[in-house]
Amino acid sequence: MARVKYLDGDDMATPEAKAAWSRLVTERPEHARGVFRLTAHSPAVLAASLTYGQALRAGTEIDDKLRELAVLTVGHATGVQYLVVHHSGLAYRYGATREQLASIPDFETSDAFDDRERAVMRLAYESTVNVRVTDAVWNAAAAFLNDREMVELVLNIAYYNNGVRLMGAFDVEPEERYVVDPIGAFLLDTGGTPSS
Questions:
Q1: Which of 70, 38, 39 is CA-nearest to residue 52?
Q2: Which of 37, 78, 162, 185 has the fewest CB neighbours in a 10 Å radius?
Q3: What rounded mean pLDDT belongs to the chain?
Q4: How far is Cα 5 from Cα 8, in angstroms, rounded to an integer?
């Protein structure tokens, strides 16, 4: 159970809060609102977070699969199940295989990833665990990505590092409607389609 109350539309009392809630309902599927329902305690931050998150997903050129592998690396490195729950389905949708989803904790030694994927995941891991990224790790990823893609990769890693800190502090748990499959990819219990 989260440490603060999950808010709903009925809790939104001010015009600012109602506007932020309206955006949340419009822009996020119902099953992907958990941490945002907590952020709704601060409506201006909720609105800004929605804008930033949407820009990272829809306004960037970095390959969707690479982005999701980086995000999942952040989730596994920090042990935050909520992030892994929601992004396993996205990674699957964007081309990650079930073997890759199962192998993320061991990406360094797994044959499931190519050199480009491993370089991106290594950067996500080092940035998450050590904060400072070494030249060797940076250069390995930059060998595959241009400057814009590198900036977008780092922005995504930073955004989801912020997210895992919120999820960990609030003690956010995956929604009950999710089920865990044997390899750690979380699928909706309504037919087994990947979550969004």
A1: 39
A2: 162
A3: 87
A4: 9
